[in-house]
Design brief:
Distance between the termini: 98 Å
Shape: elongated
Mean pLDDT: 85
Low-confidence stretches: 17-24
Number of helices: 4
Strand content: 25-35%
Structural class: alpha+beta
Largest sheet: 4 strands, mixed
């Protein structure tokens, strides 16, 4: 009788172990969905990208020499990531939802770590749609995980052929690179209905960040001009 019980227990244990293995093996990626796009989707020449290929140093992490080429490479983490010769597309701020075949879900936020040799490694991967080269204009990027590259979601980035536009200083409503009484007068004229402002001008005119444009903002500009 003891032998029979032992055999039954052994069989039950085998089935239990097989079930665990089957469950683990059955948990595969069903879909990936972008919850939040990366903060940076516009890339400008010389600031964010250059023509050339990075030749990563085998001994110094983060150190790479630029080799002449007509291909577009990014200046963020040059020589690192899944494509060390291309630099890395800045994906900070990216958040995705991963759905598995067993019905469970997981939310992942993009992060970077260092490999054993000190080079940057991303937990979420990205590459141009269809594995094509980057080009000036709108590029569709495919986001996926190393566990299953066939499941992905996509978003667009814009690679600009020129330099980044100069940042307009708060209060500079006429874009003359100065913040002075002229800008204060424009705010006063807006307040009484003589002028209309664009959405960008409204942001520049709101000196105290109260979502209103009035004489208080004009006064702040005058005080700034005096200082």
């Amino acid at each position: 009788m003891k032998k029979v019980i032992s055999v039954i227990l052994a069989i039950a244990m085998i089935f239990s172990i097989c079930g665990l293995y089957s469950s683990a093996a059955g948990k595969k990626i069903q879909s990936i969905k972008i919850v939040t796009k990366p903060t940076k989707v516009d890339f400008y020449k010389d600031t964010d990208w250059i023509y050339g290929l990075w030749d990563p140093s085998e001994t110094v992490p983060g150190k790479a020499d630029l080799v002449s080429s007509t291909r577009i490479s990014f200046t963020y983490n040059p020589g690192g990531g899944i494509y060390p010769e291309r630099g890395m597309v800045d994906m900070r701020g990216l958040k995705i939802e991963v759905v598995y075949t067993d019905g469970t879900k997981e939310t992942m936020t993009y992060s970077e770590s260092k490999s054993k040799t000190g080079f940057p490694v991303a937990n979420i991967l990205v590459s141009p749609k269809g594995g094509k080269d980057y080009f000036i204009g709108t590029n569709t990027m495919e986001v996926y995980l190393k566990a299953d590259t066939s499941k992905y979601d996509s978003y667009d980035i814009v690679i600009h052929g020129g330099s980044a536009p100069a940042q307009t200083k708060q209060g500079d409503l006429n874009s003359d690179k100065k913040v002075n009484s002229t800008d204060a007068l424009m705010i006063q004229q807006y307040a009484v209905g003589i002028l209309t402002f664009s959405a960008d001008q409204l942001k520049l005119a709101d000196m105290n960040g109260d979502k209103k444009v009035n004489s208080t903002d004009a006064l702040l500009i005058l005080q700034s001009a005096v200082k």
